[in-house]
Design a protein that fits this description.
Elements (H helix, E strand, L loop, with lengths): L1 E3 L4 E10 L3 E8 L7 E7 L2 H11 L12 E5 L2 E7 L6 H4 L7 H18 L3 H9 L3 E3 L5 E3 L14 H16 L8 H11 L6 H11 L8 H11 L1 H29 L3 H9 L2 E2 L2 E2 L3
Antiparallel strand pairs: 1-2, 2-3, 3-4, 4-6, 5-6, 7-8, 9-10
Helix pairs in contact: 3-5, 3-7, 4-5, 5-6, 6-7
Length: 281
């Protein structure tokens, strides 16, 4: 299957989703099959098409939007987005294995991804609601676009998206609830009241409440040193113990064979005479 616009021709390589109002595909440029991949959302429902076109008209900055291309093809209205291999946040985020500052940093990256996406708020809300949030290996956040437009609500605004994002952040920060977690307390309190109205407001609260990186004390640094060099230190300890064990075995055998330890006679005989006077009575 191929979708053609004035900009490019996209050849479908796999199907991600097939629903009542739209289908989602992975596609590549027809004349560049080894290049980058794209997510194609093909909308067949007329009401959904009108809703999307109306939502698109409200984008503040289409120039910076994640949408690469939009066009009509046959009976379908097609949206083109970048495609990356999914790493769902709900699967790859393990808050218990991260520090509070790392969790807060991932939360900040989620906010920045929402702000920089420049998508219609009804579409952005779908991404958040349907779990199209991905966590990269370096802690970055990116969206996938395998969405079901059947649930799209044109009444969703920035406030709705911000409240939804705050709920996701709250769940992430809850994994560090037992720590000194000011950001969790603040976001939880304002989320309960649905008082967030913009992403910038939520971003400000998260950054202000974020725990500063404290300078490690001497005890922590010593523990870190031993943790980093555990293999080397255990190796040294092994050889020291081995040498001491061999010495102890030699002393034991010497005592059994000669009744004493010959090497110790050097020290014993040395102290029997001091100068010209004998210490033996």
């Amino acid at each position: 299957m191929t979708f053609e616009s004035q900009k490019a021709s996209y050849t479908v390589v796999s199907t991600l989703f097939s629903g009542e109002k739209n289908c989602c595909y992975v596609a590549r440029l027809t004349d560049d099959m080894d290049g980058r991949s794209f997510t194609i959302i093909a909308v067949r429902d007329h009401d959904a098409i009108r809703a999307l076109m109306e939502a698109e008209s409200k984008i503040v900055s289409i120039k910076n939007s994640q949408m690469i291309d939009t066009f009509s093809y046959g009976n379908d209205y097609v949206l083109v987005f970048p495609y990356r291999q999914e790493r769902p946040l709900k699967t790859f985020f393990v808050g218990e294995a991260l520090s509070l500052s790392e969790v807060e940093e991932i939360g900040t990256n989620l906010l920045l991804a929402c702000i920089s996406a420049s998508l219609p708020y009804p579409v952005l809300y779908l991404l958040l609601e349907q779990g199209q949030i991905n966590l990269s290996k370096d802690g970055g956040i990116f969206f996938s676009y395998n969405i079901d437009l059947k649930e799209m609500d044109l009444r969703k605004t920035e406030r709705d998206c911000t409240v939804k994002c705050a709920q996701i952040l709250r769940a992430m920060l809850a994994t560090k609830e037992d720590e000194k977690n000011i950001s969790y307390e603040l976001i939880s309190r304002k989320s309960d009241n649905n008082s967030y109205t913009s992403f910038t407001e939520l971003y400000r609260d998260l950054r202000i409440a974020a725990m500063p990186v404290e300078k490690k004390g001497i005890i922590v640094r010593i523990k870190s040193f031993f943790a980093r060099n555990a293999d080397l230190l255990f190796g040294i300890l092994f050889w020291v113990c081995l040498i001491l064990g061999i010495i102890a075995l030699i002393i034991l055998l010497s005592n059994v064979v000669w009744g004493d330890v010959p090497i110790l006679r050097l020290f014993v005989n040395t102290f029997k005479n001091i100068g010209t006077e004998s210490l033996v009575q």
